[in-house]
Every structure is written in structure tokens, then in C-alpha cells.
Amino acid sequence: DGGPGSGKSSVLKRAKELEKENCNIIVIPETATEVFASGVALGGKGGLSASDFQKKVLLMQLEKKTRCREIAERINNGKPTIILEDRGAMSGRPYMPPGEFEDLVMGLGLNIAELRDKNEGVIHMVTAAIGASGFYTTANNSARTETPEKAAALDLKTRETWIGCPHLRVTESNADFEEKVANTLKTIRHFAGIPRSLEIERRFLLGYLGSPDMMAVGMMMLERRYDFRVVGVIIEQIYLKRRAGKPRQRIRRRIYDGFSLYYQTQKSGLEIGVASEDESRIQRKEYIELFENERDETRDIIRKRRYYFLWKNQYFELDIFEKPERLRGLAILEIELLDKNEPVELPPFLEPLEEITGVERYSTASLAKKR
User: Fold this and answer.
1) Are the C-beta atoms of 22 and 79 separated by less than 8 Å?
2) What pTM does this model have?
């Protein structure tokens, strides 16, 4: 996803190069541009209203994604298939008045979390109007009419739309467009697990900061003071019985606004801050079966509130533990990286912090161990 004139189309053309790296690539073109190119007009006599247009675009996006997933499942050449969307299902939200997109989604019997959180990763490419304004143009897309100022405003709204999804990466603009493309392709590789799925992160301890309810109020105050968006979800995490010679496994339930997604993950550490990670989405029935039959009884069920926010275009996760009671109020800040040497600019309002990257006693698996 990204703002107008950010280079998404150029990256998607180049993404076919990834097929040389033992994978299949399916690209879903931008739906709104396709609709405009077909002759559909907004407003005026015979034109669609903005809300009706966004509804039709959303339905088309969901249909195309469903069919592309079905196609991907039928490709039988032994290679993983990556589906790339030029704008995702949340992309209409910045173009509508506050609350109208949510009403649209609810009217379709869907859920915001269902649209936002089901992607393996979201890459937001910043419009050239921010950071490289001399390169911003509307000449290469007849459907693009935004002035640089309007493009910049839409860009900020678009990146905020995705806050709360499990994995978000912002690719900034600069004078070197090829560098921007290369950084975006690097992120695609990371999210897709090319050549292997790695979790690279840094973690910081804030200590015990009081009750989770107090912290929720505190995050709201920080959001207002520093003018950034915070989205919170509930995470329940259960560790499974350890099998000899096998990586540790866990299951996780992710809850937002009453909607749940379920995951099964196995991880094994490679070096400090770097782990091999294999994560897959599972159905509720599988989650319950694993919970009832494979749960590691020597470890507590972890329940925490996770707050997502962007700071200096870096995507942070702040975990406030709720259960077990002995961990209540424990706060740990995390950030996922593409490279272990990538610089991190910590948010000043959460200092002082103690780095605990690679400290085993602060791993969630260790924290879950019954005392």
C-alpha cells in the first residue's frame, strides 16, 4: 500500500524478479485505477457516489483476492506462492469521512480486523510528495489527480489505517528511487520468508508500570500529546509440549473488537535477536484441539495487551502483561527489523529502557514458566 505517487506499480513490476528465487508471484493490480480506466465516473449526473464507489471497489478487491488465493493453492510446482496487492482492502478508508468506512464494512457483514490483519505483512510506500517532492507527478497515472499537498495528507491517513496489523513496514522516499525500490523488495523477501523465515527483533524492558487499565489510559494520553495513532489488541499465548529435537511451539489467539485470529508458531533461536520462525494461521477448531491435547502444563497461559504505533516511521509493539497475576503490569517494547544492524530510534516518551534482546529470562517462553 502507500500514498499517491509512491512507486507501488514500479515495485510490483520489478517483483516478478523474485520468481528467480524459487517462488511464484501473483500480482493483484490496483482495483480503483482499473475501475476508473473502465470509464466509471464519480459524482455528477450518472456518476457513482463516493461511498458506493468504495463499496464496489472493496467487494472487487475481496473477490480478486479470494480467487487469487484459490489459484495459488492449485499451483503445484513445489514452490511457495506470494500474492502481492497494489493497495489492500483498507485502502478506501482514507478517502471517506470518519466512521463511514467502518459502517460500510459492518453493513457487508465483515470486520475491520478481518480486513486489516489477515495479510502476512503490509508495506507502506511513502508518496514522493513527502521526502522527494521534485519527483511527484500525476502524468503517469490518469486516475491520479492529487496535488502534492493532498497526496501527502492521504499518505499519512493511509499509513495510519494499517496500524494494528501484525507486521507493518514503512519505506520512505528519497532522491534515489532505485534505493526505495530495493528497500521495498527487501521487505517483500522478509515477509515472504525468502530465502528463509526469520524473526529479527530488538526488545526493551520498561519494568512494571501499573495495571493494564492504567496503561491503557496512559497510551491514550501519549497518543494525544505526541499526535500519533495507537491501536491495541489482546493476545493470548499458550505453549505446547516440547518434543525431543523439535523447536518450541506455541499457539496464539489475537483479539480485536470481538474478532479473533488464530496462529501456530514454532521458533528456534539462531543468534542474539534472530530466530527461525515458522508461523501459520489455523482455524478455531485446531486452536482448541491443540489447547486441550498438547498444552504444556508447566507454563502459564499468557495474556497481554499489545499496543501498535508508528514512531519516526518505525513500527513498535508495546506489550503490557495481564496474566498470570505475577506478571501483571510488566511492560516490554519490541520492534521487528529487516537486519540485526538496522538502527532504531526509540520513542523518548518510553525512556528509560533496558535492552533485553536475547536475554533468555525475559523471553515470553521463560516468563510463562510456572514458578
Assistant:
1) yes
2) 0.90
